[in-house]
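Feature request disguised as a bug: please show the residue count (462) next to UDP-N-acetylmuramoylalanine--D-glutamate ligase in the output. Example input:
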Amino acid sequence: MNRQQEDWSNYSIVVLGLARSGVAVAKLLHQLGAKVIANDVKPREKCPEAEELERLGIPVILGMHPEDLIHDGIDLIVKNPGIPYHVHPVQEALKRNIPVVTEVEIAGRLSKAPIIGITGSNGKTTTTTLVGKMLTAGGFKAKVAGNIGQALTEVVQDLSADEWLVAELSSFQLKGVQTFRPRIGALLNLVSAHLDYHQTMEDYIASKQRLFQNQSSTDLAVLNRDSQVCVEISQSISSTIWWFSRHQEVEQGVYVKDGWIVAKKSGEECRKILSVSEVALRGSFNLENALAATAIALACACPIGAIQETLRSFAGVEHRLEYVETIDGVKYYNNSKATNAQAAEKSLEAFTEPVVLIAGGLDRGVDFKELVPIFKEKVKAIITYGQTAPIFIERAKDAGITDRYKVADVKEAVIKASELAQSGDVVLLSPACASWDMYTSFEERGSIFKQAVHSLNNKKLV
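Example output, currently without the count:
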């Protein structure tokens, strides 16, 4: 049977965790005839979306995971990606050999549109957005969703076979797929991240690899040739591989040569796409994102002119090395999405100006010693806050930075940075940490930073 025509009316499904993706998949499966129960440990006052599901006739259990929630009459568990696998209902399902998936698996089963799946430790959102814009500029129908914007199950039913579904996918989402098969899968990079969830680097890598597990030689894998982990992973991939690289020529894919982005197919001469100097995005890491997006777009037969136009005009995604404002000759940049040390390091590499760095956040047991060399090279002052503040103070000492300050929050950090920075400097929020010790999301943290920066200018105008 065609997977899009699967008969869901025989399924009894528990959706664990509401939030955006949980609500979307519960509604869709209910619409398809499945018997759905939604469950979330949060109390009702923190789950306003529960009323919408109940109005549709979907039972919702809140405030706890009942002991009898999972039983042999349940056919499938669809869990929120952020729910760990050690919670009771997940463990009970696994013990009973009941499949546990994320909504990505459901979207993959239902999608008529070919899927482009993009994952990696850093750069997912920028690359996914770039691909969507390139395809649209090239005259293709393309919908961007997943870990960015709408949940996949919110959009999948509205897409036809002549459209592209461009999906940003996290390791949390990919760990819960079984039959998911993207036409094009891209792995941008892999560094140590989310080990509080995955426990081991091996599990983190294995989760990312699931993007390719169902691909065949007619599908495409786009991989980073400069990443040793990607090179090792390539040995177990059955699909056709296109590489991208900043540092070396590749047999097939996209790379940098003599200051140009060039593309090459196996056995053919390389062709120039665009001068690196014309790429609007700032930073070496964004150049990698541009290379990956170019490879994906070329694989979709996107016209080179549309790729060039997008690379010249697209200046970035909010909270990703986002320029905010210049005040008294000081440029302020919001890179709140830098939730690990590697992302923070890459953002610092993007600047030639002296940097007043604002960093800190959730303590995940990282010592940040790898940042000392880049601190020595780029950072004139560090302002830190949150659980990791004492660690950043120590790393600043290691780097010989004398201007190092601990403050209460991001707003106070901006005020302090404005006092320290001089004309020609950059003030950069690049936390190297998740936000959850003080803020609900990196978006909230970044928005507070921007508001605080604009407030500086407003005070000067009074």
